[in-house]
Each structure stands twice: as structure tokens, then as C-alpha cells.
Amino acid sequence: MVESLTFWDHFEIWLRAYLILSLFSFLYKDNRFYKMSEHIFAGLSAGYYVGLIWQTVIIQQLINPMIDEGKYLLIIPGLLGVLMFARLIPKWSWVSRVSLAFVIGNTAGIYLINALHGLIFPQLYDTMGSLTKAKGFSGGLLALVVIIGVISTLIYFYFSKEHKGVLGVTARVGIWFIMIAFGAHFGYTVMGRISLLIGRAEFLFYDWGGSLRQLF
Amino acid sequence: MSFWEKVANIDRRWIYLLVAIAVFFPMIFIMQFPVELTPEAQQLYNAIDNLPNGSIVMLTFDYYPSTMAETRPMSIAALRHMFSKDMKVVTLSNIPLGGPTIAEDVTRSIAKEYGKEYGIDYVNLGYRANYTAVMHGLASSIESIFNADFTGTPLKDLPLMQKVKNYNDIRFILVVSDNATIDYWISIVNAQYGIPVGGGVTAVSAPKMYAFVEAGQLTGLLGGMKGAAEYEKLVGIKGTATRGMDSQSLVHFLIIFLVIAGNVAFFALRGREKGRVNG
Fold first, then answer.
1. What is the rounded CA–CA span in Å between residue B271 and residue B266?
2. B240: closest CA among B62, A190, B231?
3. How far apart are CA A17 and CA A25, in angstroms?
4. Residue ranges of the alpha helices (H) in B29-60?
5. Is residue B275 exposed (0-12), middle (13-18) or buried (19+ Cβ within 10 Å)?
6. What 8-state DSSP symbol labels residue B147?
7. Does position B175 have pLDDT exceeding 90, yes or no?
8. Do A50 and A41 contact (CB within 8 A), yes or no?
């Protein structure tokens, strides 16, 4: 509930309400208000990110450490970053591949460890050990369902052999598991999207409504 | 045009209108549908509740303003829970747009209610670019990544940060996220540094997270607005998530009804079409 708002509070609430209603107006049909709000959003986001990267990367992580802390070796990643702009000059665009090679190599190295050590192995151990950890008949049944689900889904994505016979039946079981997973995702996605709508509706009802009550 | 043809070809704007009515109706006529607890939400609550009073915990605000309806109530309920147990809270964000400011706004207002002092009971580290580097860097030294807090105060001037040098000083990390950062909190911080991580995620991300909860990589989970409402119930508050669940439930009833009506119309029309072709 809104209490004793200042002029700028009212201004902010009304501006937000205007932008929300303009964007929602697209649900009826495309119109100028929607387009203007969309362009404001795109422009603001682009401007914000340019400023943000300048401040949090160039200043905070390159210029300040070099000047304040004497970390002059940072000139190397700085130069690698500059080389990326060579893509803008067709004759020199090959130079940017040096930076890209570094980025790809570095990213692959970091993400490989994360994926193997943090995601694939723990999930694999847990799936393999789920039967031994299961408690009671229902626990065992659930663990079996998980194992069958994992194996049949993996087999569905095995394309080196035609899906016929045992392979075909297992792949079809896999499709059922995938469909159930899609259903769960869809249900949650509906909840997520409705939550976003509720968030905006609550703003309009309580905040904008509060401002309206106070003004009129 | 028959009744079923009208149903099958209904102008989608009528559906939008019905959804809007279902969302606003419970705001005018309070309904208070019950919120049932899930084991995952209870697990998260227990994990924090079982920590000794005064423990140092980390709370992340890894979300954009667009998903605030789902994630902000989680942060608020978590902060109330943590401050009620006199925990010291270190907040940070791996999201540049919104996260750090929401952290500042939410933490300061909740801390004020509990009489907590900035720098002693809680600190907002703000945002640093490149979250994988941040997560790895915090393991050796927080100060090497964040030399100052969100407002620019050097960490050496904040008493709480004298006790928190790296992950070893943090008992639990609650990641409230609307994107892939939680995957890295799990695969880097939990898997490689062994810090218990709990999750509060948007509904869209929730199904994927259950595998991590089952494997013990995630200590408890809050999924979407429902998860936030559950945590509010556990903490004993009626926040915006609990309030929003009435609209949520009503829209879900409407969607279930529309899915059934759409399918009945589809099969009725297909049956009629088959009859026409055969006869």
C-alpha cells in the first residue's frame, strides 16, 4: 500500500504504469504506444550495457588495476580485447582470430571441468547408485523408473543405428519420458509467465492504484 | 458456425481478457487458497534453520527486475529467516541489471526492521563481471574480486568482512536466481569447493533443479512463486508470493479449463469431419 508519496514517487509510478499498459496494449493489437515503449526498452538496455561494461570491465578490471596496483601484465588481455575490433576492417579481420582462439580455449577448459566435475559425474554417480540408496519398495520402484528413464532417453538420442527392434522400443519409451519432462517444463513455464503477469498486475493494482487514490 | 467451431476459433483476445479477470479478481475478493509445503522447500528451510545462530551466510541476488514477482519474495523471506537467527549476511549479484540495486533496496529495508547494522550484520558486495571467474576467485579471496562493497566502501573498513575472507568462512549459500548462474554455483562452488548451496529459482528453471536436489548437489529448492509462498509460510509471513498464489491458482484453473475445452472442440470437429468423409 502506498503512503504519502512525493511528486517524484508519483511520477515514477505513473511512468512505470504507462510503460506497462503500453506494452500490454500489444495484446489487443500492434500500436504506436507499444512500439515506443519497446524502443525505449531496447535503447535503454543497450545504453546501460555499454556504460556497465565500460565501468565494470574496462575501468574496474583493466585501467584501475594497472594504474593503482601496477598490474601492467593486464595490457596483454587488454590488447587481445582491442584485437577483436579488427573484425570491423575486412583486410585485418583475421587478426581477431587470435583473441577468439584464446577465448574459445579458455572457455572450453573452464567449462569442461565444470561440466564433468560438477554436472555429469555427480549426476552419473547418483543415477547409478539410486537403486542401492533407495528405501523401501516405493523408493526402489522410483529409482528403477529413473534408471529406465535415463537409459531410454539416452538411447533415443543415439542416432548411429536405425531405431528398430529392441533399440526402437527403448527409444519409444525414451520419447514418453521426454514428453513427460516437456509437460513438467510446460506446466512450470505457465506458472512462471503467469507470475510475471501477477507481478505487473500487483503493481498496477496496489502501487498505481494507491497513487490514484492519493491524487484523486 | 457451430458451437465447437466457435470454441476452436475463439479470438485469443477473449482469452487474454479472461486471464486478466482471473488475475485481478483475487486482488479485489481475497480468497486465500492453502499453500502446501513441498519436501524441497522444507529441506531448504531446515538447512538454514539448523545453522547455529550468528552463522555467516551468503545470499545472492542473481535475478533481473523482470522476474521480481517470483524471486524477490524468496529473498525477503530468506533475509527475515536469517536476520531472525542473528545471522551475518553477505549479499552479491552476478547479474548487472537490477540485481545489485534490488539487493541494496531489499536488504537494507529488512535489516532496518530487525535493527541490523550495515557493515556489522550484513554487507552488499554488489556486482562484478564474469561470474565464473568471480565464483572461482571468491574461493581464494573475496577481497581479490570485490575490493569495495556496492557503495564503494573498501572491504577493509567493514568489520564483517574482516571475518569473511573466502568460502571457508561461509556456512551456507542461498542462490536466488532466474538464469544459468545457479548451474555454476552448483558445478563450481558446491562441486569443487564443497560449500552447501540452496536454490531459489524461477518456475521456468525449477524442473531441471530437481535432479540436483536428488543428487544432494542442491540443499533444498524453491520453485517459482509457489516456492516463494512456501518459504513465506515456513517463516510465518504473508508476503507478496502468498498473495499472488490466489491469482496463480485461479489462472491455473482457467488454463486447465481452456486446455480441456480446446481438446474437446478439436476431437468433436475431427469426429464430425470423419463422419462427413465416411458418410
1. 9
2. B231
3. 12
4. 39-49
5. exposed
6. S
7. yes
8. no
Distance from CA of B274 to the nearest CA of A (A): 28
Contact B89, B122 (CB under 8 A): yes
CB contact under 8 A, A194 and B248: yes
| pTM passes above 0.95 | no
CA distance A174 to chain B (A): 17
| B88 Cβ contact partners less than 8 Å away, ≥ 6 residues apart | B54, B55, B56, B57, B121, B122, B160, B163, B164
Instruction: Enter the C-alpha cell of residue A17.
Output: 504504469
Min Cα separation B279/chain A (Å): 35
B102–A contact, CB cutoff 8 A: no
Q: What's the confidence (pLDDT) of residue B274?
A: 85
Model confidence pLDDT, tens digit, residues A155-214: 999 989 898 999 999 999 999 999 999 999 999 999 999 999 999 999 999 999 999 999
Cβ of A114 within 8 Å of Cβ of B248? The answer is no
Residues in B closer than 8 angstroms to A192, CB to CB, are 67, 70, 202-204, 224
On the 0-12 / 13-18 / 19+ scale of CB atoms within 10 A, B18 is middle
Are A118 and B226 a contacting pair at CB < 8 A?
Answer: no
* B244/A181 CB distance under 8 A: no
A178's grid cell? 521426454
pLDDT digits (tens, 9 = 90+) for B94-111: 998 888 899 999 999 999
- CA–CA dist B183, B190 (Å, integer): 10
Q: Determine which of A19, A71, A119, A194 to mutate to test the interface with B (most B C-beta atoms within 10 Å).
A: A194
Helix axes B68-84, B240-278, angle to 10 degrees: 150
| Contact predicate B22/B276, CB 8 Å | no
Q: Does A1 touch chain B (CB under 8 A)?
A: no
Q: Which residues pair with B176 in a beta bridge?
A: B61, B200
Chain A residues with beta carbon closer than 8 angstroms to that of B214: 126
Mutate to test the interface with A, among B28, B101, B181, B214 (most CBs of A within 10 A): B214
Identify the pLDDT of residue A3.
Answer: 64
Question: Phi/psi zone of residue B213: left (φ > 0), alpha (ψ -120 to 50 degrees), beta?
Answer: alpha
**Mean confidence (pLDDT) of chain B:** 94
